[in-house]
Specification:
By secondary structure, the protein is mainly β. It contains no helices and 11 strands.
Length: 119
């Protein structure tokens, strides 16, 4: 089991910055994948940024160059630094973790944190 707790959301003007944090209840060193998704009003949930096996990263095209995912294994925490925010970044941001066992996977979600970008 992995509990995920997000923090750092809020209201910011366009062009501003926010840093989201996701604290896990156990070591993230061996977690297969961990990252951030978002769901905007009337939209489907989409992948924003993620660490996968081997510390590879992947980003949604529209956030490349503006968002950076990072991790602190000692604190069991993953971060999402969001710069040059745009109104279209407004969404609930969810932390996600995937663990593996044999041929199976467990998927965990945080409760979400609201990010609102005003124009």
């Amino acid at each position: 089991q992995v509990q995920l707790v997000e923090s750092g959301g809020g209201l910011v003007q366009a062009g501003g910055s926010l840093r989201l944090s996701c604290a896990a209840s156990r070591s993230i060193f061996s977690i297969y994948a961990m990252g951030w998704y978002r769901q905007g009003p009337g939209k489907q949930r989409e992948l924003v940024a993620i660490f996968t096996s081997g510390d590879s990263t992947d980003y949604l095209d529209s956030v490349k160059g503006r968002f950076t995912i990072s991790r602190d294994n000692a604190k069991n925490t993953v971060y999402l630094q969001m710069n040059s925010l745009k109104p279209e970044d407004t969404a609930v941001y969810y932390c996600n973790a995937v663990t593996t066992y044999g041929s199976g996977r467990n998927v965990y979600w945080g409760q979400g944190t609201q990010v609102t970008v005003s124009s």
